Amino acid sequence: MRALVTGATGFVGRYLVLELRRRGWNVICLVRRQVEPVDPEIECVTADLSQPTDIPFLQLAVRPIDALFHFGALLPGKEISARQYLTVNSTATAHLLEIAANLDIKSVVYASSLPFIGRPEHLPINEDHSTKPMHPYHLSKLCGELACEMARRISGRSITSLRITSPYGPGMQSRVVLSRFVESTLRSKDIHWLGGGTRAQNFVHVRDVVRAALLATATQNPGVYNVGGRETTTMKELALLVTQLSPIKGCEATAAEGVDPEEGIRWEIDLTRAQAGLGYTPSIALPDGLADYIEWARSGARAPSWWKS
After folding, report:
1. Rounded distance, CA 206 to CA 245, Å?
2. Separation CA 140–CA 113 (nearest Å)
3. Which residue among 93, 135, 216, 239 is least packed, with the fewest CB closer than 10 Å?
4. What does the pLDDT look like over 251-282, one tens digit per residue?
5. Closest Cα to residue 151, out of 74, 67, 208, 94?
6. CA distances from 50 to 157, 235, 309 (A)
7. CB-CB neighbours of 130 under 10 Å
8. So what's the pLDDT on residue 61?
9. Is the domain covering 2-235+240-299 a CATH 3.40.50.720 domain?
10. Ranges of H-type helices in 9-135
11. DSSP code per residue over 190-249
12. H-helix or E-strand containing 293?
């Protein structure tokens, strides 16, 4: 089996490449900057998703490709225009779908984003929830998903979008709440949640996300699926759990001054469709995954990677 992976050096992409190799797949990584793989069965093709028409698909056609995993994206950042998001995340997705058709790639898996629904209007959140993007990034991910759905309906090909909640694990972004809480305790600092700490997120371990992506390549029911973790956790519960699991004792978790603008919002995810259509059930409970993450962060180890540093 042979896979093409975009976003291969990103947080989820690096785990996906390693798991594909562990299962015996040959992997082509579409990367923005050239890196040197540690494994001879991993190839690198340089391409910039901000210039989607320059993606060198002819170079990819040397041998058949069984699956395309599209995990590359321009992530939220400062001073990024809606045009840039739409070019990198939407136009490039449409172009990759054309490449998949031209190369007769049997399966396409697209990393979508659940937060483009806006504020949850009903719980649990299923795949039929209305979509109301509140940020250009979320708009661009929704446009990418719609392009996938259109291509699937027209062509009948196996194209699946995974609406991922809040992935976590070694190598995750340092600015998200889970990693910030952990970093505070490892520096012997107290943790503070905003407001009443009732805002609740659904955290899913990166290895469960990878497992869902691989299940999507084998499904007989391609479409749109939520991918989340076992439980929904409030910020207060998360803070208390981090202090409980941290090896650095003496830190406290308390309320900070100020109001949480998302007070009371719950991201409670319905995984019924994913269980039925993909066979996906999250395997890693938050306390277990969080304990492993804290140990990794404390050790100062490098995140798993398939390329030489």
Report:
1. 20
2. 10
3. 135
4. 999 999 889 999 999 999 999 999 999 999 99
5. 94
6. 26, 36, 25
7. 9
8. 61
9. yes
10. 11-22, 57-60, 82-85, 92-102
11. -EEESTTS--EEEEEEHHHHHHHHHHHHH-SS-SEEEE--S-EEEHHHHHHHHHHH-SST
12. helix 286-299
DSSP state of 257: S
Task: Please report which helix (H) or strand (E) contains residue 286, including its range.
Answer: helix 286-299
Q: Where are the domains of the chain?
A: 2-235+240-299
Q: How is 109-174 classified by DSSP, letter by letter?
A: EEEEEGGGG-S--SSSB-TTS-----SHHHHHHHHHHHHHHHHHHHH--EEEEEEE-EEESTT--T
Rounded distance, CA 179 to CA 88, Å? 27
Is the whole model's pTM more than 0.85, yes or no? yes
- How many angstroms separate the CA atoms of 280 and 206, rounded? 14
Could you give the 3-state DSSP secondary structure of residue 29? strand
3-class SS at 83? helix
Apex CA 77: angle with CA 240 and CA 238, to 5°? 10
Distance from C-alpha of 25 to C-alpha of 68, rounded to nearest angstrom: 12
The CA distance from 210 to 8, in Å, is: 12
In degrees and rounded to multiples of 5, residue 185 shows phi and psi of -65, -35
Long-range contacts of the stretch 236-239 (C-beta < 8 A, 24+): 236/193, 236/196, 236/197, 236/198, 237/197, 237/200, 238/177, 238/178, 238/181, 238/193, 238/201, 239/181, 239/191, 239/192, 239/193, 239/197
* Rounded-to-integer distance, Cα 163 and Cα 128, Å: 12
Give the chain's mean pLDDT. Answer: 94
Cβ 204 vs Cβ 164: under 8 Å? yes
Looking at residue 59, its pLDDT comes to 67
Spatial neighbors of 9 by CB under 8 A, at least 6 apart, are 29, 31, 35, 305, 307
Number of other residues whose CB lies within 10 A of the CB of residue 56 = 12
